[in-house]
Amino acid sequence: MKLRRSVIALVVFVSLGLVPISAAAGPQVQSPLATDEEQRVYEAFRAWITTQPADVQQADDDVVYGRYAALLQTQGKSAKDASSTIELLRKIGDRAEVERWNRIPAYSPRRNPDSTQPQTCFSST
């Protein structure tokens, strides 16, 4: 699976309503929102991946994460810390990208004052 293509496809299909968010999320039982730490780690990764050549952006996840781990180590992180960062990126998957778009005001949902459920711009309601 190619990480960047997957993220783009998910955002496009969900925002067009072609895939219900529950189907896009799959059987995972995770918090729908990324934590502040997850968001910080993802934003750093996203800043890096968007500066990479197309062949890196379109490479398999293992190749992309391997290069990112190597970069983290050149920045002074230990191999263990770099590995932990990669595991966190794998764990959060597409949730951080969805949360990123939910934080952009133009894409933020309108709050339904009668609803007790949190809404996101990708909510099916």
Structural class: mainly alpha
**Helix percentage range:** 55-70%
Q: Major sheet, described briefly?
A: none
Number of helical segments with 4 or more residues: 7
Q: Rounded to an integer, what's the Rg over CA atoms?
A: 16 Å
Looking at the chains present, what oligomeric state does this protein adopt?
single chain
Spans with pLDDT under 50 lasting ≥5 residues?
A: none
Number of domains: 1
Please trace the helix and strand order, writing H or E for each element: HHHHHHH
Instruction: Give the overall pLDDT as a whole number.
Output: 76
Give your account of this protein's structure:
The chain has helices at 3-15, 21-25, 36-49, 54-57, 61-74, 79-92, 95-102. It has 125 residues and is mainly α. It has one domain. Helix 3 packs across helix 7.
Question: Which features does this protein show?
Answer:
125 residues; mainly alpha; 0% strand; globular
